[in-house]
Design brief:
With 492 residues, the chain is an alpha+beta fold. 26% of the residues lie in helices and 22% in strands. The longest helix is centred in the middle third of the chain and has 15 residues.
Length: 492
């Protein structure tokens, strides 16, 4: 186990006083002591790309399972830096604190479902959902898998910059059956309708549960009250998103009853577009450290008794930060479901199609032409179950294959991240510790002699232990580096 350094986390006095009113003295002491310990490092394996046994076999870190509730989740138990390893660049795992993994595990979407992550940036929970809706495959080939999958993930974030970061993280994950949007929740509901089997509302909150990770905290009772008002407003969009019989997961990273039990109690009590009984709480699986919600913290509500079905994660009882999660199911209604409008793609023009086919034949790709879509000179592979996004601002739809430039096609970094070395005609794969790989990640060109053959000039997939990292182009006896500039790291 790594040494847990003591932290000087100064908690807001008002927060400490409120927790003193909520928790008995012995538990309060354990709760406050937890903030002096270092946060745990969590890692969730990308089962779109690699099986759990295969990852454990190659993992360069010491790992311990987080629990039976998420087989792909682990704690990093040594002092390594997994965020700096080439496997992270290749998307073999996502660094996610353990409590944040619980949302995807509890919502538990299955292959083929339509799922919405309403406030998805930076993408930890979205990547988890993307793995869950994919059909199981022993091959670890996310692009080939996406060609047959019927599932769709809509990942939204209202902030455009955060939505772009979300797109980057989903691309590294190899998630292809994804629509990424940037809009207010009510606009998402108006554009798409109640068509989702599962919806995750990771609500903006006062962030009390993350105090241990942030030494300087802005907190007040007024902030808590403002967050609660905003959360109630966001939940009002739920009936416009969740199909009858579908499920909604409300999650926060705060301890405040005003933002947790009281928000859910108010929602269950009915609103403008729903009535008492239209939604009911679901009892999830119970595992070590999964404490129950507290009905007594919302005692004035007639729906308070249901709140024991919620899950509270406390830092002194669970190897993660503070979270609150509540699963609700919408009552089934005969003939009340909606069918989403299909998306009408803009296919490549004849000249664009020739450029794409020249590239595809050269690298050995065969993708269905009817799923190709062009937008702003960029070519995308649409999800099989693509739906019409209406007037929503689209950040990415499907897999970005590349862009059309004068007289040529330039492949996207996203495409490289969805491929393995064995899926293309020409690839070079180096081990994680190979100095040539370090040079590539630093942006250096390399001698063409590093390729296994002396074939013709053209695009080459660069991989780490067989997992795609990026592109290079063989020309004039050299491998010209096309690793994205913003991802390059300093040469060691």
């Amino acid at each position: 186990m790594p040494t847990e350094n003591k932290r000087d986390t100064t908690l807001p006095p008002g927060f400490v006083a409120r927790m003193g009113r909520l928790l008995p003295p012995d538990e309060l002491a354990a709760f406050l002591a937890a903030f002096d310990g270092a946060p745990r490092v969590g890692l969730r394996v990308n089962t779109l790309k690699i099986s759990l046994p295969d990852f454990i076999n190659i993992a360069p870190f010491s790992l311990a399972p987080v629990g039976d509730w998420e087989p792909a989740g682990f704690l990093v138990t040594d002092n390594s830096r997994p965020g700096r390893h080439p496997y992270h660049d290749a998307g073999l795992y996502y660094l996610q604190e353990p409590s944040a993994m619980v949302a995807g595990a509890l919502l538990a979407p299955v292959a083929g479902e339509r799922v919405l992550d309403l406030a998805a940036a930076p993408g930890g929970k979205a990547t988890h959902l993307a793995s869950r809706i994919a059909a199981p495959t022993p091959l670890g080939r996310p692009l080939r898998q996406a060609l047959d999958d019927e599932g769709l993930l809509v990942a939204n974030d209202v902030h455009a910059g955060r939505a772009r970061l979300l797109a980057d993280n989903l691309a590294r994950w190899g998630a292809s059956n994804v629509l990424i949007t940037s809009a207010e929740p009510e606009r998402v509901a108006a554009a798409l309708g109640p068509v989702f089997d599962r919806v995750l509302m990771d609500a903006p909150c006062s962030g009390e549960g993350m105090f241990r990770r942030h030494e300087e905290v802005e907190w007040s009772e007024a902030i808590v009250a403002a967050c609660a008002r905003r959360q109630r407003g966001i939940l009002e969009s739920a009936p416009g998103l969740v199909r009858p019989g579908g499920r909604l997961l409300y999650a926060t990273c705060t301890f405040a009853p005003e933002e947790d039990e009281q928000v859910i109690a108010a929602f269950l009590g009915g609103g403008g577009d729903w009535e008492i009984g239209d939604w009911e709480m679901v009892e999830p699986g119970r595992f070590a450290g999964f404490d129950r919600g507290r009905p007594d913290w919302a005692a004035e509500s007639p729906a308070a008794a249901e709140l024991s079905h919620a899950v509270r994660l406390w830092p002194h009882r669970f190897p993660g930060e503070g979270h609150f999660l509540a699963i609700m199911e919408r009552a089934a209604q005969p003939d009340a479901g909606e069918t989403p409008r299909p998306f009408r793609p803009r296919p490549p023009a004849a000249a664009e199609m020739r450029l794409w086919q020249e590239f595809a034949v050269a690298v050995g790709l065969d993708l269905p032409a009817e799923r190709l879509n062009v937008h702003d000179n960029r070519l995308y592979l649409l999800p099989r179950a693509a739906i019409d996004p209406g007037r929503l601002r689209i950040v990415r739809y499907g897999l970005h294959l590349g862009e059309f430039r004068p007289g040529r096609f330039h492949p996207a970094h996203d495409l490289a991240l969805s491929l393995g070395a064995g899926e293309v005609t020409t690839a070079v794969s180096w081990t994680a510790g190979d100095p040539r790989l370090a040079a590539y990640l630093a942006g250096s060109d390399l001698p063409g002699s590093e390729l296994p053959d002396a074939g013709s000039d053209g695009w080459v997939l660069v991989a780490v232990d067989g997992f795609g990292l990026g592109w290079a182009k063989r020309a004039g006896g050299r491998l010209k580096n096309h690793y994205p500039h913003h991802l390059r790291r300093a040469a060691v």
